Amino acid sequence: MAVTQLDATFLAEQKQRLLELRRQLIEVGDAAGEDEQLLQTTAGGEPQDASDDGTRLANLANDEAVLSHNEARIGAVDRALEKIEEGTYGISDGNGEVIPRERLEAVPESCYTVEEAVDQERFSRRR
């Protein structure tokens, strides 16, 4: 298994960034959930015209996409936090290679190398 050369200061900073990112993602998800609930409540049992229904459905679809994306990112953030605690932060969960520090700075929840992430994205698009 590869060994990273990440110093304690960097790891502490990354942990704080991950915790803040997690908080923000949950906050956005809560807001999207509240918006969805408000849309459903305001629609009530009253007749709606087609444009109102279309707008409401588009907003619901957008909120669902945001929630789904945020759930996936929260999972990645949680995994990155686990890796910090395990001492494996900066090592790919896939191939065991070192994840470059620059990637961790740009995307602190990275648990895979860029190449692996691209491959995963391609695979998920095909499904």
UniProtKB/TrEMBL annotation:
Which residue stretches are annotated zinc finger (dksA C4-type)?
92-116
Stretch list, region Disordered: 32-53
Could you tell me the superkingdom of the organism this chain comes from?
Answer: Bacteria
- Protein name stated in the entry: TraR/DksA family transcriptional regulator
Q: Give the originating organism.
A: Luteibacter yeojuensis
